[in-house]
Write a structure and sequence with these properties.
Met_Sox_Rdtase_MsrB; Met_Sox_Rdtase_MsrB_dom; EC 1.8.4.12; 25% strand
Length: 160
Protein backbone atom coordinates (compact mmCIF):
# COMPACT_ATOMS: atom_id res chain seq x y z
CA UNK A 1 0.00 0.00 0.00
CA UNK A 2 1.48 3.35 -0.98
CA UNK A 3 1.62 6.46 1.23
CA UNK A 4 -1.35 8.14 -0.52
CA UNK A 5 -3.61 5.12 0.06
CA UNK A 6 -2.52 4.95 3.71
CA UNK A 7 -3.41 8.62 4.21
CA UNK A 8 -6.78 8.16 2.45
CA UNK A 9 -7.60 5.12 4.61
CA UNK A 10 -6.69 7.06 7.76
CA UNK A 11 -8.85 10.02 6.66
CA UNK A 12 -11.81 7.71 5.85
CA UNK A 13 -11.49 6.06 9.28
CA UNK A 14 -11.39 9.47 11.02
CA UNK A 15 -14.45 10.66 9.04
CA UNK A 16 -16.36 7.50 10.01
CA UNK A 17 -15.41 7.90 13.70
CA UNK A 18 -16.38 11.58 13.61
CA UNK A 19 -19.78 10.71 12.08
CA UNK A 20 -20.34 8.03 14.75
CA UNK A 21 -19.38 10.51 17.51
CA UNK A 22 -21.83 13.07 16.10
CA UNK A 23 -24.61 10.46 16.19
CA UNK A 24 -23.81 9.68 19.84
CA UNK A 25 -23.89 13.40 20.68
CA UNK A 26 -27.25 13.83 18.91
CA UNK A 27 -28.72 11.33 21.38
CA UNK A 28 -26.89 12.64 24.46
CA UNK A 29 -27.46 16.37 23.98
CA UNK A 30 -30.70 18.32 23.69
CA UNK A 31 -31.43 19.75 20.22
CA UNK A 32 -30.30 23.25 21.28
CA UNK A 33 -27.13 21.91 22.92
CA UNK A 34 -26.27 20.01 19.74
CA UNK A 35 -27.09 22.99 17.51
CA UNK A 36 -24.91 25.35 19.55
CA UNK A 37 -21.91 23.11 20.23
CA UNK A 38 -21.73 21.11 17.00
CA UNK A 39 -23.31 23.41 14.41
CA UNK A 40 -22.04 26.77 15.75
CA UNK A 41 -25.56 27.91 16.63
CA UNK A 42 -26.69 30.63 19.01
CA UNK A 43 -29.44 30.39 21.60
CA UNK A 44 -31.91 33.18 22.31
CA UNK A 45 -30.86 35.92 24.73
CA UNK A 46 -32.68 36.13 28.08
CA UNK A 47 -34.24 32.73 27.34
CA UNK A 48 -31.46 30.38 28.38
CA UNK A 49 -30.48 28.52 31.50
CA UNK A 50 -27.57 30.52 32.93
CA UNK A 51 -27.86 34.14 31.77
CA UNK A 52 -29.09 35.20 35.22
CA UNK A 53 -27.48 32.50 37.38
CA UNK A 54 -26.00 34.03 40.55
CA UNK A 55 -24.86 30.80 42.28
CA UNK A 56 -21.20 30.17 43.10
CA UNK A 57 -19.63 27.46 41.00
CA UNK A 58 -17.95 26.63 37.74
CA UNK A 59 -19.14 26.15 34.17
CA UNK A 60 -17.82 23.19 32.17
CA UNK A 61 -18.16 22.14 28.54
CA UNK A 62 -21.43 20.20 28.15
CA UNK A 63 -19.66 17.79 25.76
CA UNK A 64 -16.25 17.14 27.33
CA UNK A 65 -16.53 18.38 30.92
CA UNK A 66 -13.55 20.73 30.51
CA UNK A 67 -13.60 23.48 33.18
CA UNK A 68 -14.16 26.74 31.29
CA UNK A 69 -15.52 29.59 33.42
CA UNK A 70 -16.34 30.43 37.02
CA UNK A 71 -18.96 32.52 38.76
CA UNK A 72 -16.03 34.59 40.07
CA UNK A 73 -15.46 35.92 36.53
CA UNK A 74 -19.18 36.14 35.64
CA UNK A 75 -20.90 39.51 35.37
CA UNK A 76 -24.15 40.99 34.05
CA UNK A 77 -23.38 42.40 30.61
CA UNK A 78 -27.04 43.12 29.86
CA UNK A 79 -26.87 40.97 26.70
CA UNK A 80 -29.00 38.06 27.93
CA UNK A 81 -26.21 35.49 27.70
CA UNK A 82 -23.78 34.41 30.42
CA UNK A 83 -20.81 36.78 30.25
CA UNK A 84 -17.39 36.40 31.81
CA UNK A 85 -14.39 38.73 31.91
CA UNK A 86 -12.01 35.78 31.56
CA UNK A 87 -11.82 32.00 31.37
CA UNK A 88 -11.16 29.78 34.35
CA UNK A 89 -8.28 28.14 32.51
CA UNK A 90 -7.12 29.83 29.28
CA UNK A 91 -5.55 26.51 28.23
CA UNK A 92 -9.05 24.99 27.91
CA UNK A 93 -10.31 27.38 25.23
CA UNK A 94 -9.28 28.29 21.72
CA UNK A 95 -10.08 31.43 19.76
CA UNK A 96 -10.72 31.60 16.02
CA UNK A 97 -11.55 34.31 13.49
CA UNK A 98 -15.25 34.29 12.63
CA UNK A 99 -16.30 36.11 9.44
CA UNK A 100 -19.83 34.65 9.21
CA UNK A 101 -21.46 38.04 9.84
CA UNK A 102 -20.74 41.46 8.36
CA UNK A 103 -18.53 42.40 11.32
CA UNK A 104 -15.60 40.02 12.00
CA UNK A 105 -15.70 38.40 15.45
CA UNK A 106 -13.60 36.05 17.53
CA UNK A 107 -15.19 32.67 18.15
CA UNK A 108 -14.49 30.80 21.40
CA UNK A 109 -14.34 26.97 21.40
CA UNK A 110 -13.42 24.39 24.02
CA UNK A 111 -10.01 22.89 23.37
CA UNK A 112 -10.66 19.17 23.93
CA UNK A 113 -14.36 18.98 23.07
CA UNK A 114 -14.06 21.47 20.19
CA UNK A 115 -17.49 22.75 21.18
CA UNK A 116 -18.62 26.12 19.91
CA UNK A 117 -19.12 28.20 23.07
CA UNK A 118 -19.74 31.73 21.83
CA UNK A 119 -17.61 34.80 21.11
CA UNK A 120 -15.22 37.14 22.89
CA UNK A 121 -15.42 40.92 22.53
CA UNK A 122 -13.15 43.75 23.68
CA UNK A 123 -15.90 45.63 25.54
CA UNK A 124 -15.83 43.93 28.93
CA UNK A 125 -14.93 45.11 32.42
CA UNK A 126 -11.55 45.16 34.08
CA UNK A 127 -9.28 43.43 34.81
CA UNK A 128 -9.23 42.12 31.21
CA UNK A 129 -11.49 44.45 29.26
CA UNK A 130 -12.95 41.34 27.62
CA UNK A 131 -16.48 39.97 27.42
CA UNK A 132 -16.76 36.25 26.81
CA UNK A 133 -20.36 36.00 25.62
CA UNK A 134 -21.17 32.30 26.01
CA UNK A 135 -24.20 30.17 25.14
CA UNK A 136 -25.75 28.46 28.18
CA UNK A 137 -26.47 25.45 25.96
CA UNK A 138 -22.71 24.84 25.65
CA UNK A 139 -22.29 24.73 29.44
CA UNK A 140 -23.05 22.61 32.47
CA UNK A 141 -23.01 24.45 35.79
CA UNK A 142 -21.50 22.75 38.83
CA UNK A 143 -22.41 24.49 42.10
CA UNK A 144 -19.69 25.10 44.67
CA UNK A 145 -21.15 22.53 47.07
CA UNK A 146 -21.01 19.79 44.37
CA UNK A 147 -17.45 20.44 43.10
CA UNK A 148 -15.84 17.62 45.11
CA UNK A 149 -18.60 15.16 44.28
CA UNK A 150 -18.39 15.95 40.55
CA UNK A 151 -14.59 15.63 40.42
CA UNK A 152 -13.73 19.34 40.33
CA UNK A 153 -12.55 19.71 43.94
CA UNK A 154 -9.42 21.60 42.86
CA UNK A 155 -11.67 24.64 42.21
CA UNK A 156 -13.16 24.80 45.76
CA UNK A 157 -10.53 27.35 46.77
CA UNK A 158 -12.06 29.91 44.38
CA UNK A 159 -14.99 30.25 46.77
CA UNK A 160 -13.24 30.27 50.15
Amino acid sequence: MDKKQTEENKENKENKENKENKEILKHRLTPIQYCVTQEDGTEQPFNNEYWNNKQEGIYVDIVSGEPLFSSVQKYDSGTGWPSFWGPLSPDNITEHKDNKLIQPRTEVRSKVGDSHLGHVFADGPQPTGLRYCINSAALRFIPNDKLEEEGYGEYKSLFE
